[in-house]
């Protein structure tokens, strides 16, 4: 694989005729927003890449909203990103990012609301910057993925929703999405190209690994002082710190080593290391295992709620209100952050994905 790998979708003019017709259709519309929808390995991003390049050739300024969280072209992963294309590009990874919205995980199933908000906000920005806005989406079309696509269409109200044929269970999902979408927007169904290549889970993981590695390749360690920033995406740091007596009580009752804790209005949040596995009242105590914070992805958020960039939490100095973080962001970029948001994936700077966390774990 070559560098940012790696990207599965490369600009090619060897495409089915209906892609050429699609370019003509989009060019006939006034500042359109176009959403591409299809299942995994259906050729969505390849089709979008072709359309974007052909529109650039016609003199259009093209905004691209990349919401394929795991197989992102416009880096980094775990965000929704906006890029602007004014000249031909071989793959989305060659487009300079303009703006990001932090999701914090590579699969949107537990973060449908945030993903929809991110897409809508970036489309709103893109409308003011570009002649045409194209939206890439995940291959997640069944179960929660169906609702995600429906809500994206309902929130964005694209001028055109472009679907790609599928097979089996996903074929029915695509048909139902077209049916649901037809009252909200014009729809087009493209045939599935016979040149589409399927990728195994191992190949997809390797592609993500290359993208993580590329994004964090120029990172440096920084100390983040949480007394100067808001904290979101976690129940930690909410409420007052535990007293020494409370901390000692938790340790004695539950056989924990309590590293930090906070008391809210009706519950406690405790960061602990286990010495034992005694049961506890989960409706009153939220217990966070210290090891889940190691290599946790975090986002630096600006005053408008957009993501300046990502960091990897290397050492949480919770009792001091400090985080040791690895990030490619410059000192100037970090100075614009007003908030630190906790994600739900643990990943190393070399690209190894250690774990996906459940939303409620933090």
UniProtKB/TrEMBL annotation:
Cofactor: a divalent metal cation
SUPFAM superfamilies: P-loop containing nucleoside triphosphate hydrolases (SSF52540)
Keywords: ATP-binding, Hydrolase, Kinase, Nucleotide-binding, Transferase
Gene Ontology BP term (one): RNA processing
Record-listed E.C. numbers: 2.7.1.78
GO function terms (MF aspect): ATP binding; ATP-dependent polynucleotide 5'-hydroxyl-kinase activity; hydrolase activity
Function as written in the Swiss-Prot or TrEMBL entry: Polynucleotide kinase that can phosphorylate the 5'-hydroxyl groups of both single-stranded RNA (ssRNA) and single-stranded DNA (ssDNA). Exhibits a strong preference for ssRNA.
Name of the featured protein: polynucleotide 5'-hydroxyl-kinase
Highest classification ranks of the organism: Archaea, Methanobacteriati, Methanobacteriota, Thermococci, Thermococcales
